[in-house]
Amino acid sequence: MGGMSQLAPSSGEAAGKGIAVRSDAADTRKTRRDGDDVGMDQRISLITLGVADLARARAFYEALGWGGAQQPDDEVCFFQAGGMAFGLWTALGGHGAPGIELAHNVRSPEEVGAVLAEAQRAGGTIVRPAALAEWGGTSGAFADPEGYVWEVAHNPRWTLNEDGTVRI
Predict the structure, then answer these.
(1) Is 34 found in the same domain as 50?
(2) By residue range, what is the domain housing residue 158?
(3) Cis (ω within 30 of 0) for the bond into 98?
């Protein structure tokens, strides 16, 4: 994370748990009063849509003016979308298309398991434990209480900037 930032007491539920929220916009980690980080950074690294036909979906977005797609195989492609990435995937989370999955990239393989554990403690359900992924990184996933799935991933080929933005 970035340098030390001012801590301001938070209000509501977080304050009752002895948690403070850093005040700078780039660093949104919560910190317990004992100095340990809590939870996951408040950001989305990737939004992936499940698609039935990758070529058709990619052509649609390219016709809208989206460019620079990276397509590592016949199942998925990624577009840079500002400070995050946008993906199209034919086999979204094993659930099939259509669907949506959010992703939160982290800076190390170990952080994948830590964020999954925090999500479980908060009431989420682990849908895919942290494991080495066939694409060379570490990945796992949790569902929030409403069933929305978040992938937590460390991708050694993507850059995760200090401010949380991702570059593919």
Answers:
(1) no
(2) 46-167
(3) yes
Comparing CA positions, the residue from 155, 157, 168 lying closest to residue 105 is 155
8 A C-beta contact, residue 106 and residue 154: yes
Helices (H), the chain: 12-16, 54-63, 109-121
Kindly tell me the sign of the dihedral angle through the C-alpha atoms of 72, 74, 76, 79. Answer: positive
DSSP, collapsed to helix, strand or coil, labels residue 113 as helix
Bridge partners of 19? 32
Residue % of the chain over a pLDDT of 90: 58
Per-residue pLDDT of 63-103, as tens digits, reads: 989 999 999 999 999 999 999 999 999 877 554 446 888 99
Query: Considering the domain boundaries, does residue 2 fall inside one?
Result: no
Q: Which of 111, 109, 87, 110 is nearest to 99 (CA)?
A: 87
How many domains is the chain partitioned into structurally?
2
Higher-pLDDT residue of 168 and 4 is 168
Q: Which of 29, 1, 45 is nearest to 165 (CA)?
A: 45
